């Protein structure tokens, strides 16, 4: 039996290698196309911007959380103490029988 030579169609911009199948050649051509290159570059740029955004958002969250702990928490504690003192004074006034004064708001 005589062996028959295989003749295939060579795609533009590819190296004709007789051992590669058509699927491998098409895949190689597609992966080297400018559209794929631009898509990969766009994805890389988007990932970079997302990373920077998350980093700056984390910094802003840290600053906001620290400012809250330093400024707002002591205020809340002091307001709670003041409320407890007012309630205690009203309780003592009711026990002693003095007329109670309406709490100021």
Give your account of this protein's structure.
This protein is mainly α and 105 residues long. The protein has a domain at 31-94. It is built from two helices and no strands. The mean pLDDT is 82. Keywords: Membrane, Mitochondrion, Mitochondrion outer membrane, Protein transport, Receptor, Translocation, Transmembrane, Transmembrane helix, Transport. Pfam families: Tom22. It is found in: Mitochondrion outer membrane.
Give a quick summary of the entry.
The chain has 105 residues and is mostly helical. The chain is built from 2 helices and no strands. The model has no long low-confidence stretch (mean pLDDT 82).
Q: Got a strand count? A: 0
Q: Mind telling me the C-alpha Rg?
A: 38 Å
Largest sheet: none
Element pattern in H and E: HH
How far is the first residue's CA from the last residue's CA?
A: 107 Å
Strand content bin: under 5%
| Mean of residue pLDDT values | 82
Please state the structural category: mainly alpha
Keywords: Membrane, Mitochondrion, Mitochondrion outer membrane, Protein transport, Receptor, Translocation, Transmembrane, Transmembrane helix, Transport
Transmembrane segments: 60-77
Family: Belongs to the Tom22 family.
GO biological process, one term: intracellular protein transport
How is the secondary structure organized here?
Elements: H1 22-31, H2 34-96
Membrane topology: Single-pass membrane protein
Main location: mitochondrion
InterPro entries: Tom22, Tom22_pln
Question: Main attributes?
Answer:
mitochondrion outer membrane; translocation; 2 helices; receptor; 105 residues; mainly alpha
């Amino acid at each position: 039996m005589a062996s028959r030579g295989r003749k295939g169609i060579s795609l533009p911009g590819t190296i004709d290698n007789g051992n590669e199948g058509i699927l491998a050649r098409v895949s190689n051509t597609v992966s080297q196309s400018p559209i794929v290159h631009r898509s990969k570059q766009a994805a890389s740029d988007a990932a970079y911007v997302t990373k920077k955004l998350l980093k700056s958002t984390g910094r802003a969250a840290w600053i906001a959380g620290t400012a809250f702990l330093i400024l707002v928490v002591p205020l809340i504690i002091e307001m709670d103490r003041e409320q407890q003192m007012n309630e205690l004074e009203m309780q003592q006034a009711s026990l002693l029988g003095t007329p109670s004064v309406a709490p100021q708001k």
